[in-house]
Amino acid sequence: TQDYKLDVETLVDGLDAPWSLVFLPDGRMLIGERSGRLSITPANGGEPAAVDGVEGVSAGGQGGLHGIALAPDFDTSGTVFYCHASSYGGGRGTVVSRAHLNLAANRLENVTRIFEQTPAGATGRHFGCRLVFDRDGMLFVTTGDRGNKSKLAQDPATGIGKVIRIDEDGNAPPDNPRLDGWDKRVWSIGHRNIQGAALHPASGELWTAEHGARGGDEINNPQPGLNY
User: Fold this and answer.
1) Once rounded to an integer, what is the mean pLDDT over residues 1-25?
2) Residue 211: active-site member
3) Backbone angles phi and psi of 6, in degrees to 5
4) Could you say which of 126, 191, 200, 211 is catalytic?
């Protein structure tokens, strides 16, 4: 066992349940808070500057503004994606929206909804909502079981308790599993509430951290067409 000394420096404070952070090409931080606020903080820290134009966030319970991802071509397109809880279909669910981030005006423009979890639910729990681009430019989206729809996590035709894989317009890529009875956007099934996701730096595969019940947290490497 080796001891380490950590130096802790506060770069930004006063945030309300920050849920996601991505670095812009110039080193500044784009920070999303569960309450629905999106802001940009200087690379060396300081006062966050609010980003206007965030649409569709329904904050309450565990749900709100969650995952953020920059498009692979963000340098030229300025496209960002954000995952959030939203109201639709008589309830709430996990939604992914695409927008252009106008850095000159600190504003999201041309907001377009590209994914809605179905069916919507009535609870304020288990939205999942992590976003990761793979090396083919496809977007992984994690969804939760909404706290009371665990049986639907086993139904591959629904968006409950799944890893979803879509293109930037929300369409299913041709190399998704596409098994009989499966929604073509579904990558894997049987998940409870994936709240962490990243690509392995060497293999490029997706790895996830799943919020389990009663200490049953899981680390998974979800494979196409499998049940977890």
Assistant:
1) 94
2) no
3) -110, 130
4) 126
